[in-house]
Amino acid sequence: MQLYFSPGACSLASHITLRELGLPFELKRADTKTKKTEDGSDYLAINPKGSVPALKLDSGEVLTEGPAILQYLADQNEGKLAPKNGTIERYRLQSWLNYITSEIHKGFSPLFNPSASDQVKEYHTQLLGKKFDWLNGQLAGKAYLTGSDFTIADAYAFVVINWVNFVGIDLARWPNIQQFQARVAARPKVQEALAAEGLAKKG
Fold it and tell me: Which domains are assigned to the chain?
Protein backbone atom coordinates (compact mmCIF):
# COMPACT_ATOMS: atom_id res chain seq x y z
CA MET A 1 0.00 0.00 0.00
CA GLN A 2 1.04 3.57 -0.63
CA LEU A 3 -0.21 6.42 1.54
CA TYR A 4 -0.17 9.86 -0.04
CA PHE A 5 0.20 12.45 2.71
CA SER A 6 1.05 16.02 3.55
CA PRO A 7 2.87 16.60 6.87
CA GLY A 8 0.46 17.33 9.72
CA ALA A 9 -2.63 17.20 7.50
CA CYS A 10 -5.54 14.88 8.26
CA SER A 11 -3.61 12.16 6.40
CA LEU A 12 -1.55 11.85 9.59
CA ALA A 13 -4.47 9.90 11.11
CA SER A 14 -4.16 7.25 8.39
CA HIS A 15 -0.39 7.24 8.86
CA ILE A 16 -0.78 6.65 12.61
CA THR A 17 -3.31 3.89 11.96
CA LEU A 18 -1.00 2.07 9.55
CA ARG A 19 1.76 2.08 12.17
CA GLU A 20 -0.55 1.08 15.03
CA LEU A 21 -1.73 -1.91 12.98
CA GLY A 22 1.75 -2.87 11.81
CA LEU A 23 0.67 -2.95 8.16
CA PRO A 24 3.29 -2.68 5.39
CA PHE A 25 3.10 0.63 3.54
CA GLU A 26 5.09 3.23 1.68
CA LEU A 27 4.80 6.96 2.37
CA LYS A 28 4.38 9.25 -0.62
CA ARG A 29 4.46 12.97 0.03
CA ALA A 30 2.02 15.13 -1.94
CA ASP A 31 1.87 18.91 -2.14
CA THR A 32 -1.80 19.87 -2.03
CA LYS A 33 -1.03 23.37 -3.36
CA THR A 34 1.05 22.45 -6.40
CA LYS A 35 -0.73 19.07 -6.83
CA LYS A 36 2.62 17.39 -7.31
CA THR A 37 4.15 14.39 -5.54
CA GLU A 38 7.67 14.48 -4.16
CA ASP A 39 9.06 12.99 -7.39
CA GLY A 40 7.37 15.72 -9.44
CA SER A 41 4.56 13.61 -10.86
CA ASP A 42 0.95 14.75 -11.10
CA TYR A 43 -0.89 14.04 -7.86
CA LEU A 44 -4.23 14.65 -9.58
CA ALA A 45 -3.60 11.44 -11.50
CA ILE A 46 -3.80 9.65 -8.14
CA ASN A 47 -6.57 11.70 -6.54
CA PRO A 48 -8.41 14.09 -8.88
CA LYS A 49 -9.76 15.93 -5.82
CA GLY A 50 -6.20 16.97 -5.00
CA SER A 51 -6.57 16.42 -1.28
CA VAL A 52 -4.93 13.99 1.13
CA PRO A 53 -5.03 11.26 2.19
CA ALA A 54 -5.16 8.87 -0.72
CA LEU A 55 -4.40 5.21 -0.23
CA LYS A 56 -3.24 3.23 -3.26
CA LEU A 57 -3.88 -0.45 -2.69
CA ASP A 58 -1.68 -3.25 -3.96
CA SER A 59 -4.43 -3.96 -6.51
CA GLY A 60 -3.92 -0.49 -7.95
CA GLU A 61 -7.24 0.80 -6.66
CA VAL A 62 -7.21 4.14 -4.83
CA LEU A 63 -9.26 5.02 -1.77
CA THR A 64 -9.83 8.64 -0.75
CA GLU A 65 -11.49 10.43 2.20
CA GLY A 66 -9.91 9.95 5.61
CA PRO A 67 -12.78 8.28 7.51
CA ALA A 68 -13.23 5.70 4.74
CA ILE A 69 -9.50 4.96 4.62
CA LEU A 70 -9.35 4.65 8.42
CA GLN A 71 -12.15 2.08 8.43
CA TYR A 72 -10.64 0.14 5.54
CA LEU A 73 -7.32 -0.06 7.38
CA ALA A 74 -8.92 -1.07 10.67
CA ASP A 75 -10.81 -3.85 8.92
CA GLN A 76 -7.51 -5.35 7.78
CA ASN A 77 -6.97 -6.28 11.43
CA GLU A 78 -10.52 -6.62 12.70
CA GLY A 79 -11.08 -5.77 16.31
CA LYS A 80 -7.84 -3.93 16.96
CA LEU A 81 -8.73 -0.31 16.19
CA ALA A 82 -12.43 -0.62 15.31
CA PRO A 83 -15.27 -2.87 16.51
CA LYS A 84 -16.65 -5.50 14.15
CA ASN A 85 -18.88 -4.33 11.31
CA GLY A 86 -22.59 -4.62 12.06
CA THR A 87 -22.23 -4.12 15.80
CA ILE A 88 -23.68 -1.19 17.71
CA GLU A 89 -20.15 -0.39 18.86
CA ARG A 90 -19.10 0.05 15.23
CA TYR A 91 -21.95 2.46 14.59
CA ARG A 92 -20.93 4.46 17.66
CA LEU A 93 -17.42 4.64 16.24
CA GLN A 94 -18.85 5.83 12.92
CA SER A 95 -20.78 8.49 14.81
CA TRP A 96 -17.49 9.74 16.22
CA LEU A 97 -15.83 9.72 12.80
CA ASN A 98 -18.71 11.72 11.36
CA TYR A 99 -18.65 14.21 14.20
CA ILE A 100 -14.90 14.73 13.89
CA THR A 101 -15.01 15.20 10.13
CA SER A 102 -18.07 17.44 9.93
CA GLU A 103 -17.88 19.46 13.14
CA ILE A 104 -14.23 19.66 14.13
CA HIS A 105 -12.19 19.05 10.98
CA LYS A 106 -14.34 21.36 8.84
CA GLY A 107 -14.62 23.80 11.73
CA PHE A 108 -10.93 24.59 11.30
CA SER A 109 -11.20 25.32 7.58
CA PRO A 110 -12.08 29.07 7.84
CA LEU A 111 -9.20 29.55 10.31
CA PHE A 112 -6.71 28.41 7.67
CA ASN A 113 -8.23 30.56 4.93
CA PRO A 114 -5.88 33.51 4.29
CA SER A 115 -8.70 35.54 2.74
CA ALA A 116 -10.98 35.20 5.78
CA SER A 117 -11.33 38.39 7.83
CA ASP A 118 -10.48 38.59 11.52
CA GLN A 119 -14.21 38.82 12.27
CA VAL A 120 -14.93 35.64 10.34
CA LYS A 121 -12.09 33.83 12.08
CA GLU A 122 -13.26 35.01 15.49
CA TYR A 123 -16.78 33.80 14.76
CA HIS A 124 -15.58 30.35 13.69
CA THR A 125 -13.19 30.15 16.65
CA GLN A 126 -16.19 30.64 18.94
CA LEU A 127 -18.15 27.94 17.09
CA LEU A 128 -15.23 25.56 17.40
CA GLY A 129 -15.02 26.37 21.10
CA LYS A 130 -18.60 25.18 21.55
CA LYS A 131 -17.70 21.89 19.86
CA PHE A 132 -14.75 21.59 22.22
CA ASP A 133 -17.03 22.27 25.21
CA TRP A 134 -19.12 19.24 24.27
CA LEU A 135 -16.11 17.07 23.46
CA ASN A 136 -14.45 17.97 26.75
CA GLY A 137 -17.52 16.69 28.58
CA GLN A 138 -17.55 13.48 26.55
CA LEU A 139 -13.96 12.75 27.55
CA ALA A 140 -14.61 13.09 31.27
CA GLY A 141 -13.44 9.95 33.03
CA LYS A 142 -12.39 8.27 29.76
CA ALA A 143 -8.97 7.57 28.32
CA TYR A 144 -10.25 7.65 24.74
CA LEU A 145 -13.38 8.65 22.84
CA THR A 146 -15.13 5.30 23.10
CA GLY A 147 -13.74 4.28 26.48
CA SER A 148 -10.50 2.57 27.46
CA ASP A 149 -9.44 1.38 23.99
CA PHE A 150 -7.62 3.46 21.37
CA THR A 151 -9.45 3.50 18.01
CA ILE A 152 -9.17 5.10 14.60
CA ALA A 153 -11.47 7.87 15.88
CA ASP A 154 -8.84 8.80 18.47
CA ALA A 155 -6.15 9.00 15.79
CA TYR A 156 -8.35 11.30 13.71
CA ALA A 157 -9.39 13.48 16.64
CA PHE A 158 -5.80 13.84 17.82
CA VAL A 159 -4.65 15.07 14.41
CA VAL A 160 -7.34 17.69 13.84
CA ILE A 161 -7.36 18.96 17.43
CA ASN A 162 -3.59 19.42 17.15
CA TRP A 163 -4.28 22.16 14.61
CA VAL A 164 -5.03 24.50 17.54
CA ASN A 165 -1.26 25.01 17.61
CA PHE A 166 -1.43 26.73 14.22
CA VAL A 167 -4.45 28.98 14.84
CA GLY A 168 -3.76 30.27 18.33
CA ILE A 169 -6.36 28.35 20.34
CA ASP A 170 -5.31 27.45 23.89
CA LEU A 171 -6.57 24.03 25.04
CA ALA A 172 -6.18 25.00 28.71
CA ARG A 173 -9.92 25.78 28.71
CA TRP A 174 -10.60 22.10 28.04
CA PRO A 175 -8.45 20.01 30.41
CA ASN A 176 -9.93 16.68 29.34
CA ILE A 177 -9.07 17.39 25.71
CA GLN A 178 -5.63 18.58 26.73
CA GLN A 179 -5.00 15.33 28.63
CA PHE A 180 -6.37 13.29 25.72
CA GLN A 181 -3.94 14.97 23.33
CA ALA A 182 -1.00 14.26 25.63
CA ARG A 183 -2.12 10.64 26.08
CA VAL A 184 -2.32 10.00 22.34
CA ALA A 185 0.91 11.88 21.63
CA ALA A 186 2.76 9.61 24.06
CA ARG A 187 1.87 6.45 22.11
CA PRO A 188 5.04 5.00 20.52
CA LYS A 189 3.47 4.55 17.06
CA VAL A 190 2.15 8.10 17.14
CA GLN A 191 5.66 9.29 17.95
CA GLU A 192 6.97 7.25 15.01
CA ALA A 193 4.46 8.81 12.62
CA LEU A 194 5.21 12.34 13.84
CA ALA A 195 8.94 11.76 13.42
CA ALA A 196 8.49 10.32 9.93
CA GLU A 197 6.58 13.45 8.87
CA GLY A 198 9.15 15.77 10.42
CA LEU A 199 6.76 16.86 13.16
CA ALA A 200 8.51 15.52 16.25
CA LYS A 201 9.26 18.15 18.87
CA LYS A 202 12.90 19.07 19.25
CA GLY A 203 14.65 18.58 22.57
Answer: 2-79+190-196 (3.40.30.10), 88-187 (1.20.1050.10)
